[in-house]
Amino acid sequence: MNISKQLFTEAFTNSLFNMPNRGFICVVVLISLYSETQGYTHRRFQAKNHEYSTDPKPQFKEKYFSQIMDHFNFNIMGNGTYEQRYLITDEYWKRGSGPMFFYTGNEGDIWEFALNSGFITELAAQQRALVIFAEHRYYGKSLPFGQDSFNIPEVGLLTVEQALADYAIMITELKQQLGASACPVIVFGGSYGGMLSVYMRLRYPNIVAGALAASAPILSTAGMGESKQFFQDVTSDFENYAPECRDAVRGAFQRLRDLAQMEDYGRIQSAFSLCKTPSSYKDIHQLNGLLRNAFTLMAMLDYPYSTHFMGSMPANPVKVACDTMLGAGDLLHALKDTAGIVYNSTGDLTCFDLYTLYVECADPTGCGLGFNSLAWDYQACTEIEMYYESNNVSDMFPPMPFTEKHREQYCSKRWGVIPRPGWLKTQFWGDALSTASNIIFSNGDLDPWANGGVRKSLSSSLIAINISEGAHHLDLREANAADPASVIKARKMESDIIAKWVKMEERYR
């Protein structure tokens, strides 16, 4: 789900993508680490001009947990283990009795989520909690087979069920090691991580007392959504800013289509500053995907302040994009400049390389780049269903179908697997959640993933919080002066509910 889009300089990009047989390596300098006797401590990233909180930042220690490779088959791997990374801070913890706040890491490097989920540590300071961010197997540095983790069949141990079992084992053993056996556990997650938080509460209610699932599309990724919904909602973000913005984007794509039909590839290369002249339908399809992906990211990350999450993004990127589209006379150049907000925020690129800035995969919303993209592509080919397509009728993008048949053909060729539609619904209940408890489903109205999640409360303990001015899991981010009133209110509700869960668990000790 779009763990994506770190930006390259042209020279660096070219050198990386000459590496054989390893797909894409993407390096982003976000953090600095220094050694300590007990692991690593992170000096918290300070972005210029937008950090707001005046509270001291927690010092996370980076550690590794000896994790079982295969929780469900005793013969193949036996008791083989791998090193699973996690981050921990006990800075706020009331030792031995305060709750454990556990982030169920998702499709990327765990530091990136820790750096962009400041609400959890702010809440930990209030409620005197221990905080752990656990990295998902096959992402970041948690590679069970090292550089061979994405070979077949080694990649086969990458499943939702294995990841949940990892977290259950880690929580259980760390509680014993830290003298926290009596401490209630609340899990947190955003996007796919939010889905995992829901699943942890469903699968391991004996371990997890409650879950905050922010922007978790548990319905659409279980095959229960409309295929046109996602890109329709992306379009709505831009349309709501200005209907003429939607029309300008649609018009620019139509102009691109006209040039492609005339095979005026030289004009297309010039208009979009492409590194190579396109020469086929395949190249134009790739260009359409790259451009559509830029709008997807800006809609998801439409935060009211600049961020460095999944790349660098200005404040209110939807507004910036629309002003760019409407401020230029030539629609094609405007479309190129708008995409540059995502792909060339530094202005360092002199041209756009279609096949290095964007990779088409089993997730039409984008898999990102590097090893993390390989892991997400595999998951989108197995358990996570992503049947999202644009049609240029309900949305502003070129028609780009992605059906069950497309997915099956791609996944069979790429990974040698046949997807199993409906598996997540069978495994994790789909919309039949009425017998569950203690889950918060938060969603922002600006987030195109929102309508793939739970938008209405299902009971007194299955609570939907809708954030009118919220983008993708904005409520998990740390407090900022530019936060809208709706997200401040949502965080207060979440804080109060979680405090009640913790007190309830304390009564049963």
Going by helix content, strand content and strand pairing, the class is alpha/beta
Mean pLDDT value:
89
Oligomer: single chain
Approximate shape: globular
- The secondary-structure element order is HEEEEEHHEHEHEHHHHHHHHHHEEH
Strand content: 5-15%
Main sheet properties? 10 strands, mixed
Unreliable residue runs: 2-56
Number of strands: 10
Individual helix count: 16
Architecture overview:
The chain has 509 residues and is of the alpha/beta class. Helix content is 38%, strand content 12%. It has 16 helices and 10 strands. It has helices spanning 10-16, 110-115, 118-127, 160-177, 192-203, 229-241, 243-261, 265-272, 281-300, 317-327, 331-343, 354-357, 370-382, 404-415, 423-428, 485-507; strands at residues 32-36, 39-43, 61-68, 81-89, 100-104, 130-134, 185-190, 210-214, 439-444, 462-467. A 10-stranded mixed beta sheet has the order 1-2-3-4-6-5-7-8-9-10, sandwiched between helices. β7 (185-190), α5 (192-203) and β8 form a beta-alpha-beta unit. α6 (229-241) crosses α7, α6 packs across α9 and α9 packs across α11 (331-343). The longest helix has 23 residues, at 485-507. It is globular and about 70 Å long. The two termini are 39 Å apart. Residues 2-56 have low confidence and may be disordered.
